[in-house]
Amino acid sequence: MELASSSSPPPPRASKIGTSNTKAIPRPKRRRSLCIGTCAVILVIVTVIVILALTVFKPKRPVTTVDSVSLKDLHADLDIRRLRVDLNVTLDVDLSIKNPNKVGFKYRNSSAVLIYRGDQVGDVAIPGGQMSADETRRVNVTLILMADRLLSQSQVYSDVFAGALPLSTHARVSGRVTILGIFKIHVVSTTWCDFTVNVSNRSVSDQSCTYKTKL
């Protein structure tokens, strides 16, 4: 007697627990998204820096002004027999350097010169330094006329005899303004003052100044 073999169907495979039906984002797309995000952040930062540089931190021109010119010492002697003028002039010049920027201003060693009818007859150094934002610094310099430089000027005899000596001072200050530690702006401030030294009453009059600053 043959026994009928019964074959049962194989049990169904158990589904994996915890599997997700969502597909993973391919790596190239993730890299592209990261690159776009980084570029967007950099663009925003650069835009903010540019806006600040053009508004709040926009470079302004430092100004050098001559507050006063006073006569410290004067000796004038006209030697008609020898056709010679013994002339010694010492001037006190008060300067102001104003930094209107919202950042510091660093200026290099500069100079102020004394001019008589187009010829330089004296000079003095202006030490360099650094100024904070919105600072005004006062500088006092002493200019001494060098008599030996007047030998080529024939008009000095008539000027001393007339009692009025026309002189000029010229000061030049150059430096730079650094904005946000990135932008470096070079600036030059110049001052030119004309005045008259009255030999008779030992005073300074007719002072007229012009100022110029360029970035």
Automatic annotation (TrEMBL):
Region entry Disordered, spans: 1-24
One GO biological process term: defense response to other organism
Pfam families: LEA_2
Domain Late embryogenesis abundant protein LEA-2 subgroup: 95-186
Keyword annotations from UniProtKB, A to Z: Membrane, Transmembrane, Transmembrane helix
Protein name, as recorded: Late embryogenesis abundant protein
Superkingdom assignment: Eukaryota
Compartments, record wording: Membrane
Record-annotated membrane-spanning stretches: 34-57
Membrane topology of the entry: Single-pass membrane protein
One Gene Ontology CC term in the entry: membrane
